[in-house]
Amino acid sequence: MKSEESVGPPVLKVENLAVAYKVRGGEVEAVQDVSFEIHRGQSLGIVGESGCGKSTVAWSIVNFLGANGYVKRGSIKFQGQELVGKTGEALRRLRGDQIAMVYQDPMQALNPSMRLGDQLREVLTVHRGLSKKEAERRCIEMLERVYMPDAAAVMKRYPHQISGGQQQRVVIAMALLNNPALVIMDEPTTALDVTVEAAVLDLVAELRRDFDTAIMFISHNLGVVARVCNHVGVMYAGEMVERARVGDLYANPQHPYTQGLMRCVPKLGSDKVSSILYPIRGRVPPPDNRPAGCIYGPRCDYAQDRCQHEHPALRPISGVGNWARCHFAEEIDAAAWTPPEEIPIPTIDQPQSDNQPIMQINELSKYYEVRGDSLRDVFGLSQPRYVKAVERVSFTVPKGKTLGIVGESGCGKSTLIKTIIGLEDSSSGEAQFMGFDITGAIQQRDTQLIRELQMVFQNPDSTMNPSYTVGQQIGRPMERFNTVPKNQIRSEVIKLLEAMRLGSNYYDRLPRQLSGGEKQRVGIARALASQPDLVLCDEPVSALDVSVQAAILNLLLEVQQQFGTTLIFIAHDLSVVRFFSDYVAVMYLGQMMEIGPAEAIYAPPYHPYTEALLSAVPIPDPKARQKRIRLEGAVPSAMNPPTGCRFNTRCPRRHLLPDPDICLTEPPWRDVGPDHQIFCHHTVETLSSFDPVIAETV
Amino acid sequence: MFVKDYMTRHPIMVAPEMRATEAQKIMSENKIRHLPVVGEGKRLVGLVTRQRLALKPDAMASLNVWEITRFLANMSVRQVMLAAKQVHTIGPDNTVERAARLMAEQKVSCLPVLDGDGVVVGILSEVDLLRAIQDMLGMTAEGVRVTMQMPDEKGQFARLATTLAEHGWGIMGIGSYPAPRRAGYYQIVVKIPQVTVEQVREVLSQIPGQEMVDIRTVV
């Protein structure tokens, strides 16, 4: 056994690194004074918000900085050899043999027009000169090592024929084929579902142990880093502001920025009544306009005079194992922190519980017809086939409450929302909103009805017309629906902007002049402009940084309080859904598996699928003990779903039934509590006997 | 105990074209004594050791002081390394004792570890073997270390093991070897956790035909 703290020379040693990009009118230092080491078998997590220079550090190691980027100062030593200033040929050889990279989007690392086998083999035949046959054998071995089902067959497939999680496994297998000393992973799981993410993270941790590979793991997600890394560096505005062992960092963050980040993320199991998210005020300064003195100073609650002109150095903090870039780290007590007054904190007064349902959905289904391309299909002679995107979904939403919908991608969450708002018509079933029938498409709806139902989209960039000003965008629904007299629209828009904490000076701005968080605020403002009763939010915060996410969630909560709006909230992050929602519905492959009050969903009894989802959530606390349930295989095709319980092909609890074949028949809806129902063959007693997924942390 | 478990993976390696002076710097900066030299695809082409870098005086005897500088500055790793065919190597699935024997017989202080087609996957040095001994004898935690001497006969070890089992004691490390200076006898070192010297002494000294050579508490 080798000890965790391995001695000996580091695999990668970065010292005082500064990276600059040449731009028009000078140059911008994207990264300043970053130092760290990674030893064999260690993984260093680099966290921080977008634009903090995480990826720039990674790219500088392999010199992928582009034509205008260069290492300005400092040194990067890999296996004792200086990389800065190496020629292209020497670097090329190192990259092929000893350094591998895994990127966020597996589709960009794989060539869509080549079979996976050819792409994998190439690594060995080109870099090692192995024979084709030997290379083939090793590739299959490595694919099996990353738990790829049916590895030999996968070699013959094209990238689009396997799922996203499998693609990422192929990329990881490819990275490890040459047994590299260092693997750089840049957000490797961000594009994946939680269940797939959990499996990939397990794999990364296991491979690090088995191959003694040094891993540099870049992520914005504190939970993911807690799960796979043993050291963490926190970056802010191009500097490393804190560096520590993973346990020390989460238990005892020293830098005010790290503390702020921790307060931004909802803990799994906390809700909006008992806990509050505190966004960090202000925003990350652009690299060409960083403040003198401490870079975090303008946003820091503890800033003093000294912070304004003296730049702090990254130094060991006495008494703890952390290194932090702060003058006052020893004096700051995170536990004694009180929110400063300028941070808006929504007040939640619970329940005006008249529970008047505002929306009732009964057995709603949405099928898409799939046309084949045979002659019979063209003439419409063959049996039509359908993708059953949403099947027999029923729920009610009480007025003024929030319903959260969770599930893996492809489970039909977005289709359900689109059907409700009328972007798609429904195939069968009933849907009523305030007494109106909403099963038809939007063309058949009354303008008043359209006004009452509004939507906030995931990606604010693609939902705003780039050539309209913010004021025009928000004013348009008011004009269309005649909610406000024409001459008052401007003042009404400004009122809304102020409610979104954007000043009236935003009225004439164009979308490109806004940050991601600001755009999402405008998106919310536009949805609220027609004073709707129900707002559908499709992943409204998943594209945002955690500090912005906290602010947007708070804003939505406040809006809900103020206007009494009912919300349907889709998100893939279960902690966020738990925090934000009153009721949660869990969907799988177009069907609802469980629905109930939020606090009931997150504790037993729960559906086996809910249990698996919960055990996959990355928790930002390395000490949390989480039950390990991993689903096998990918989500089956919605065109040909399993009969009976749709989850039966992957259910980890199926063997507990006396007769597992019963799962091939339709399960009953079981009432397990007030408003809480589970769609499963297991009896309530069995479901209640499951251990909680997350053991109480001591 | 296999080579792959005790070798150092991802050793620092250099290319044959590198200047010898730079290789020397890498070795001293990283405090390593062996530097495998690899070509395309991490295949072994040679090995640089500290001794190889210590130049023989007669090689430079005919040069004047200026020529020496140039001679040294231009010398490449290829010129100073021990060529691959002279380097003793081992595979990752070999046993640790096999590696130890090779190193002892050939009087080398390290073995590059090569996989089937000559690719360097690690390096095994004396220090790694010493760590294997420590692991074998349970060096990592506190316990009572007892040395028993017994005749080289069948059933002797079973007697010791049964006695330990009767008392519900575990074994955290064990080693067995021919007794030094006593032909026909074996010594067995056992390290037992969570017991006291007195308890062990009382029980093990009762085994007929066996002799307790040494007992102590060690970490």
Give your account of this protein's structure.
The complex is a heterodimer of chains A (698) and B (219). By secondary structure, chain A is of the alpha/beta class. In chain A, 31% of the residues lie in helices and 21% in strands. Chain A has 24 helices and 24 strands. In chain A, the strands form four sheets. An eight-stranded mixed sheet of chain A has the order 6-7-8-3-9-10-12-11, with helices on both faces. Chain A has an eight-stranded mixed sheet with strand order 18-19-20-15-21-22-24-23, with helices on both faces. Chain A has a four-stranded antiparallel sheet with strand order 2-1-4-5, covered by helices on one side. Residues 1-5 of chain A have low confidence and may be disordered. Chain B is an alpha+beta fold and 219 residues long. Chain B has two domains: 3-134, CBS-domain (Roll); 138-218, ACT domain (Alpha-Beta Plaits, 2-Layer Sandwich). Chain B is built from ten helices and ten strands. In chain B, the strands form three sheets. Chain B has a four-stranded antiparallel sheet, covered by helices on one side. A three-stranded antiparallel sheet of chain B has the order 1-6-5. Classes of the chains: A alpha/beta (698), B alpha+beta (219). The A-B interface holds A 1, 8-9, 11, 40-41, 79-81, 90, 93, 97-98, 127-130, 134, 178-181, 211-214 and B 8-10, 12-15, 26, 29-32, 40-43, 117, 119, 121, 135, 140.
